[in-house]
Design goal:
Chain A contains 17 helices and 29 strands. By secondary structure, chain A is an alpha/beta fold. In chain A, a hairpin with a 2-residue loop joins strand 10 and strand 11. Chain A starts with a strand and ends in a 7-residue tail after the last helix.
Amino acid sequence: MKTFSVTFLPEEKSVEIAPGKTIIEAATAAGVPINSICGGDGVCGKCRVIVRSGKVTAEPNEFLTRRDIQRGVALACQTYPDGDVVVEVPLESRIGAVPRLAAEDAARFAPISQWVGEGAPYAYEPLSRKDYLQLPPATLDDNISDQERIYRELRRRRDIPIMQTGLSILRQMPGLLRAGNWRVTVTMGQRGGTVEVVQIEPGDTSSRNYGVAVDVGTTTVDAHLVDLGSSETVGAQAKYNSQISYGEDIISRIMYANTDEKLNTLRQCVVNDINDLIAGLTVETKTRLQDISYVMCAGNTTMTHLLLGLDVANIRREPYVPSASFAPVIRAAEVGIKINARGLLGVVPSVASYVGGDLVADVLVSGMNDSDEVSILVDMGTNGEIVAGNREWLACCSASAGPAFEGGGITCGMRATHGAIEHIAFGERCQTAECGVIGGGKPLGLCGSGLIDLVAELLRMGCIDRTGRFVPEVCGARLGRDGGQSEFVVVPGSGTALGRDIVISEADIASFIRAKGAIYTAAEALLRHTGLDFTDIRHVYVAGGFGNYLDVRKAIRIGLLPDLPLDRFQFIGNGSLQGAKMALLSRQAFDVMEKRIAPNMTNFELSTDPQFMNEYTGSLFLPHTNIEKFPSVEREQPRIAVR
Amino acid sequence: MKTFSVTFLPEEKSVEIAPGKTIIEAATAAGVPINSICGGDGVCGKCRVIVRSGKVTAEPNEFLTRRDIQRGVALACQTYPDGDVVVEVPLESRIGAVPRLAAEDAARFAPISQWVGEGAPYAYEPLSRKDYLQLPPATLDDNISDQERIYRELRRRRDIPIMQTGLSILRQMPGLLRAGNWRVTVTMGQRGGTVEVVQIEPGDTSSRNYGVAVDVGTTTVDAHLVDLGSSETVGAQAKYNSQISYGEDIISRIMYANTDEKLNTLRQCVVNDINDLIAGLTVETKTRLQDISYVMCAGNTTMTHLLLGLDVANIRREPYVPSASFAPVIRAAEVGIKINARGLLGVVPSVASYVGGDLVADVLVSGMNDSDEVSILVDMGTNGEIVAGNREWLACCSASAGPAFEGGGITCGMRATHGAIEHIAFGERCQTAECGVIGGGKPLGLCGSGLIDLVAELLRMGCIDRTGRFVPEVCGARLGRDGGQSEFVVVPGSGTALGRDIVISEADIASFIRAKGAIYTAAEALLRHTGLDFTDIRHVYVAGGFGNYLDVRKAIRIGLLPDLPLDRFQFIGNGSLQGAKMALLSRQAFDVMEKRIAPNMTNFELSTDPQFMNEYTGSLFLPHTNIEKFPSVEREQPRIAVR
């Protein structure tokens, strides 16, 4: 069959494709990441590329101006090569490379000894362990089977009620025992109630046993390599979830995965991502794949379903039923994850279609499930997940916040990666804007925390009113128009990386207000369901990669977080990753998630709560229609009023 | 590549073989069973065939006379076709077809309700069960995951601490639940401490759940199909173990299996046999393979190792170490057994290299492990396995008896199948011999029980003395010579199926005496090790297919069984098969074998027992050098004396 070559710049990566394939399909095949929020439907306009040579056919669309088309700009998902082509993927269309934060995150986390080990809440008992055995050689007086000889020694060391060894290891066992002169290292993995012999090696390899904790995020996949003997985190890697090419948010991916084949495509994406991360970790730390015996993943329900290849269709159909909340521990190879050939894969259990293992892990990390005091925990993402409770009870809910916190659906929005404005402060009369840019240099756009800062600053300066509309007399020269839209110029083109203005529109602010309103109202509704209000809350935990940059004071000012004393707030960072790591190192921690946290979290479906919609409408102000809910904001900003 | 066609008569089965292959290899490929005791080494002379047309090259050998060669007789394992050939396999070289006894055995066994069910020692709780669930459809108020909805209902019905569902079923679960309109049948199999969901079907299929109990014998493979709902045995099939082509006894098979490839060949043989039997059972009973969810096998240690493909090399090397005595429950498909694709395979645990799961099953069936009285149990086969004990203790040993009981190594020996003399009684002065022939008609040879009868009768008549040598003045005309050997004509050629005399030689009698001596001495040695003697024994259980025809009185007379009152003896038939069936129907019965019988059987290696050899020598008389051990025989036969 005839094929066309598609070469991507600046990487100069090439790939052969069949006629009828789009440029975005070629990019996926070539491993070149391109933004696509709509999943290839041609309705988001984010996948702009520039055709440098070769002929293409493109579907008409509304995103490209005549000038764009003359310059060779095309939407990658709507454009079909007619021959060999060379395509440039500009910075703004690019899903960033490895986020810079992985290694820093690893260092930033409080040491694992705070959670696991002597004196800590959870006992050190890794899900996989290696024991070096010096066995007595078989004699006529002691000629039990090879398997029993190994079991006898293991059970002499500790209580292991149910042990199992697979056929392939039993087949090798006699040879290995004798090759090692009765000195072997046995790797044992916990699998449900059974301890499985995962590997037998001649000699002493007990110092080489690793696990990988993975946060499978909708946007980012984060992996830490953990030395299961010492509990130390020895490496960290992260990358974007390459499912993004098939849809930016959960719903668009679920809609994409409407056949077994497409479901498998998404599974393969995230499995490849995890394999890439693990490969990176082994190179970084000079570790052998065969010494990695366990992978523990946490993520939202859709992400873990896709990882395991489980049907996701019912997650988005009322009444929102996942296939499985408690996935079995399986062999990692069953889904294609490449570690030790018989290494195991566990998944932190989830609670409901929109309350995932990430939230369960967050709860574990926060410790709220072990406290007498009532806490609330907010995991902010495209889907906001909220849990309230204490050691007696746990209640949770979720609300769709839209992609604003992750930079989606915002004119100059972007993810929290290189070039993103993560915080901003205006000088007097908005004449100066002091921006903090991730990675330094000129900014490319606004990430979620930058957006929170920006809206809070606009409100503080009086540039917007409490409905989020611009106040032209205050905004002054910064206010412009693009078509029918008012736009506030945050950074003029002269100061940006792309030479274009970084702006925020009234529509952007409205999107953002809907996002923050959904989170706040969901938290409030959850408390109402449990007969409490915010004044009963002693601790507010904020989780999510997003939380790393969050200014609590400003988040309160715009009505995202409740108006409580600042010392009640605590960031727990990437609780999903940390919880997965705790599970790897402590069977007890995994058990607590499986047997105490996940099964005992009562989920309230807010879509069935008539009051939620009313209250949500009231939250679409800054900070809220009812300013009495934010007394500190009222005191601070007496001059803001509804027009 | 050039191939030759080999056609076997009378079946007219043909097969194409490469040059350099032997006729016995062709027969194996064609599925034509040919005797081969030596495993193809050309040293047993049992694989005689007649070349009816075509050219062959044969290795010289000592078994064929000039006349044989002129008639076209050849040893199948030493003969290579040089072109297309037609070969007849005579009756005497044929491994019989399906033994006729399978169905009769099934009927003859005491009803399973004697062991399993209400009022019986073991509770009815099959290793695999089907539950028909009418689930409440998911609603917004009850939207737990599909898996939990199923688990919740199952756990409402009974206590299932650890449940697991494999990925492939989880992937189908949502579709199946909705296809069945929330009414599904769940098949659950016990696997270690875990209950595994093996299958989910829409609608109510709970009346169709079957298990297969298999006795994997060195010689015969017996299978019963069990309705796991009703506990009824609904079908029975048996066939010869086709590993026989690679060696008649355990040791020759172990020696054959000295590479991974050859080990795999033997595994494939027995797996094919089991698949053939299961296919036969499904046809016989109109059952679907997918409704068979569990297979339970019992056999000696070597047989179960070969079934699982475990290394057998160390079984025959001092200090006689098996790979595994407690095999894990696995998916039957892992070894190639064809039932439900996710159906399970269990193996009754063994004790030592020569004390197998067959003996463990025998103990369960006998109930001796649950009695206050001391019993002894003898499983007679090529390898004699003996266990003594009560509810407090169990001790066991094994002794190689040689193939005499199974008709091997005896001039006119054959297995207990059609044409075998199973019992015999001489008239006054040996003038008449009344033979019971299996299947009726003219006899072909002598099986084990016929041999016991014959030797006992020869002794009673005074035709042989207590050393087993002929007394010519008593034998009279029945005594002849073949070469240097004295032979006693049991049935003259005129009365046999092949037209040749059925004879017994002094060498045959010597082989037989060694076999019975080994069994008796082993039992005695075992008791000595436990500080007991036969007078302490309240029950003697005799197991093995062989036991079906055994005349206890005669077995005592020749010193095979101890001289105890006849009412202490009990035949338990094929305990291996019955024990496997009990395990299928009662998890408790399986648990008792795994946790109480097998691990608590102390094995005595007689090869390290210096006294055993001495006593064995003393047993090489009829009934024994020390006649005081057999007082009833002494009273009955005062006229027998050592010459």
